[in-house]
Amino acid sequence: MLKAAQTAQRSAELKAAAATLRQNEITRLSSIFVPSLRELRSLTSQRFEDEVAALFKQLGYEVEQTPYSNDAGRDAVMHKGGHVFLLECKKYDENSQSGRPDLQKFHSAIVTDKAIKGFFVTTGTVTREATEFAQKVPIEVVDGPALLRLMTDARGAGVNDDRYHSACVECGRVVSHRLREPVTVFCANGHIVRPTISVNDLLNASGAGVLVCRRCGGQMRRVNGRNGPFWGCSNYPNCRYTRSIGRQRRRRGA
User: Fold this and answer.
1) With 0-12 CB in 10 A as exposed, 13-18 as middle and 19+ as buried, what is 173?
2) Do 139 and 179 fall within a single domain?
3) Domain-terminating residue out of 129, 155, 181
4) What is the tally of structural domains in the chain?
5) Which run of H or E residues covers position 83?
6) Are residues 134 and 110 in the same domain?
7) Is 240 a domain residue?
8) pLDDT at 102
9) Pick from 145, 124, 160: which is nearest to 206 by CA?
10) What pLDDT does residue 128 have?
11) What is the CATH number of the domain that holds 135?
């Protein structure tokens, strides 16, 4: 009995040490890879447009920014694969929303320029009506969490060292993993140590993690409803799954 208790205590200590190391590594990697919405919102509108334009250049687009004023409803004209894309940027705070008229104006620019798609990038939120409209036309809404994920992926591509440490929960030996190449490794004692950190862990640590709809697997978006804000599925109206923001309890749609 004493030996079993000692073994259980040792196992608990190893797991606790591994969890502490994991959390420390998440904090360290987050500071390297994940930008901050607060920092983006503190930029001037012009600087924000420049940052987003630079992001799409990293994603392989040829980007030609329009004048900062009188831009005819788009902040940049982009080319990729022989096609034309448009970019519109809205640097808003957390409580500011873009409505359907904003997306309708952007759609008019898409039609005028004969673009095949537009990217509507915002650090704020988008109303449900605007989301529904975007789903019917070639507009991809890139809100705060989605923007941070894109920036994290782009920033990660420019960082050479994406190594982090994990601890074996069987013996405590420390091993190295790669964030971009998550593969199982063996510790010095031959125990299997699986990857312990993903990009989404970094986003969650920074408060920018992407919530996933439990019903259809789509991305959840913040929606300001009549009774207050809540998380709604981005595939609405095909999926009506919702979650409350406060206690994250499930609510069923009509």
Assistant:
1) middle
2) no
3) 155
4) 2
5) strand 83-90
6) yes
7) no
8) 94
9) 145
10) 85
11) 3.40.1350.10
Query: Which residues fall within 8 angstroms of residue 228, CB to CB, at 6 or more apart?
Result: 245
CA distances from 117 to 35, 79, 233 (A): 26, 11, 22
Domain that includes residue 10, residue range: 2-33+160-205
Query: CB atoms < 10 A from the CB of 18, how many?
Result: 19
Does residue 29 contact residue 164 with C-beta atoms inside 8 Å? Answer: yes
Q: Please state, in angstroms and rounded to a whole number, the distance separating the CA atoms of residues 241 and 100.
A: 22
pTM of the shown model: 0.66
Rounded to the nearest 5 percent, the helix, strand and coil shares of the chain are 35, 25, 35
Q: In this structure, are 71 and 136 located in the same domain?
A: yes
Q: Which pLDDT value is given to residue 254? A: 33
CA gap 26, 206 in Å, rounded: 10
CA-wise closest residue to 119 among 101, 132, 137: 137
Q: Does 186 reside within a domain? A: yes
pLDDT for 252 equals: 36
pLDDT of 193 reads 97
* Domain co-membership, 151 together with 41: yes
Tell me the CA distances in angstroms from 109 to 69, 102, 105, 112, 139, one per residue in order.
Answer: 15, 11, 7, 5, 11
Q: Is residue 216 part of a domain?
A: no
pLDDT at 54: 93
What is the structure's pLDDT at 163? Answer: 92
Instruction: Give the mean pLDDT per block of 10 residues along the chain (254 residues).
Output: 83 95 92 83 93 92 89 89 96 87 96 96 89 93 87 70 93 94 94 92 70 68 70 80 56 35
